[in-house]
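Pilot study result, target chain (158 residues):
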Amino acid sequence: MEAYVGRKRPAATLALYTFAQNNSPVGSPGGPMRARPLLPLFVLFLTGCLAGRMNSIMQSWEGHHFSELIMRWGPPQAVYDDGQGGRILVYTQVRQWTAPGQVTTTTTATATIYDNMIWGQAQSFSQYTPPQTYGYTAWRMFSIDSRGIVYRWSWRGL
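Predicted structure:
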């Protein structure tokens, strides 16, 4: 880019320069990468907090009768015999989310200037990515002894 020392920039040049600064790619100087080094630490911290909270919730059921669990959480999705006179209650929940679709448009243009006339042409190409749905199943399992008391638990998926 030309240096405009002591003069004002032409309006068109100023608009292009402003656009380039506001839409700089991630990781480029002046781009949004400066805030990103802490992102992995934040995600790790948040995941650890949520896992600790889930452990506390699950552990709070130890020693309680399974009827209390059913009264609070509703009927389980599955009940299995544990082979020792007890049961295993399994709660599942499907978690889904949809990422929005996206359109990327690339425009190529040429212009010719001759004296005080200008003419040109432009061609655009758009690529559409449809919305994507993702998901997983969260599991909560409680082991119940022969007296109906919760004595063990496990979970997978926040």
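One observation from the pilot: The beta strands are 78-81, 87-99, 102-114, 117-129, 132-144, 150-156. A full batch analysis is planned for the follow-on phase.
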